Amino acid sequence: MTTTTTATTQNPTPLWALGDYHAVATEIIAPLGPRVVEATGVHSGQHVLDVAAGTGNAALPAARTGADVVASDVTQALLVTGRATAEAEGLDLDWRCDDAQALPYDDGEFDVALSCVGVMFAPRHQDAADELVRVVRAGGRIGLLSWTPEGFIGRMFATMKPYAPAPPPGAQPPPLWGDEAHVRALLGDRVTDVVAVRETLVVDRFATGADFRDFFKATYGPTIMVYRSIADDPSRVAALDAALAALGDDALAEGRMEWEYLLLTARRS
Asked: Where does the Methyltransferase domain lie (predicted)?
């Protein structure tokens, strides 16, 4: 049976429990988890850690290969949803509530560490990268899929930034994980065989920019949080509404959007 283990680290913010992230994961970005699993070469018999797993976008396809998978995330509500999905499919995963910046696992415990648009949202990038490397054995694999700064989601965060509360001290912007030079610097000489490619996710879910905006206002934690922070200022709400709709309209071509991401794989030295 699939189990849930709750660590002592508790979610410091309800950000990712806001809205309905599972809808984003299943209706919009579902192809991304299988992509990073494939690129990293996950296979039966391996011990795999999915860091910032959410509801299991990468953890579930990793488990389908026959790998022994731990799905780790700081937001318990997402793990509960992921576990229900796994149980309905008959998959056996270990769901654990952990902080990506302080993972409670032994050095070299895993054959593979993955993250699919997940660890990029840990505020202290170097701490998260250090933990990713630490828990992978020598010769093991790391696979990371992150939105690029120049791509659509990176542009969405840039659009929301003037309306968002100030980040906590030491926090770095999530889309930096989509910059190859930044990730190479985070991992340093502790990895070899680095392969980094930019790819795009085709999204045909939205007819207009306003459709995109309204979906993210209802489902996506960071967008919901920004709107809540300006809820008492209707003029700022209207301005952000217009800016996000315009962003969506600019990205639409014949009913399709292309959302760029960086896919980076490496081997632990």
From this structure: 48-140
Strands (E), the chain: 3-6, 47-51, 68-73, 94-97, 110-116, 136-147, 191-203, 257-268
Whole-number pLDDT of residue 5 = 39
Please report which confidence band the pLDDT of residue 14 belongs to, taking 50, 70 and 90 as the band edges: confident
Structure tokens given for 221: 């934690």
Which tokens sit at 157? 């965060």
Q: Map out the domains of the chain as residue ranges.
A: 3-202+258-268
Mean pLDDT value of segment 163-172:
95
Residue 1: the pLDDT is: 37
Under the phi-then-psi rule, with left for phi > 0, alpha for psi from -120 to 50, and beta for the rest, what region is 188?
left
Cβ atoms within 10 Å, residue 10: 11
Per-residue pLDDT tens over the stretch 238-255: 999 999 999 999 999 999
User: 3-202+258-268 belongs to which homologous superfamily?
Assistant: Vaccinia Virus protein VP39 (3.40.50.150)
DSSP assignment, residue 167?
Answer: P
Taking the C-alpha atoms of residue 24 and residue 31, their distance in angstroms, rounded to an integer, is 11
How is residue 194 annotated by DSSP?
E
% of residues, the chain, pLDDT over 90? 95
